[in-house]
Write a structure and sequence with these properties.
2 helices, mainly alpha
């Protein structure tokens, strides 16, 4: 009877360890998912701002009056980087 008790206790401990491991992996996955979602949100925000800046530069350069006025008030000449 003692061998059966020891085997049952051993199997219970293995099951308990595996349960905790599963919980840890699920929370780790969720934490990584949330982090990657935040990074993707920042990438989208920066991409949107970059697009807005490109449109503003194009509008300023397309109108000579606006472009000259912007240079007079201290705008720095934009560097065009065609990626």
């Amino acid at each position: 009877m003692k061998i059966i008790d020891a085997v049952i206790i051993f199997l219970s401990l293995i099951f308990l360890i595996l349960s905790f491991l599963k919980v840890f992996l699920v929370f780790d996955y969720k934490r990584n998912y949330v982090y990657l979602d935040e990074v993707q949100t920042q990438i989208n925000l920066l991409s949107s701002q970059n697009t807005k800046l490109k449109v503003e530069i194009s509008l300023i350069q397309s109108s000579p009056y606006i472009y000259e006025k912007a240079l007079e008030i201290g705008m720095i000449e934009p560097e065009i980087n065609n990626d």
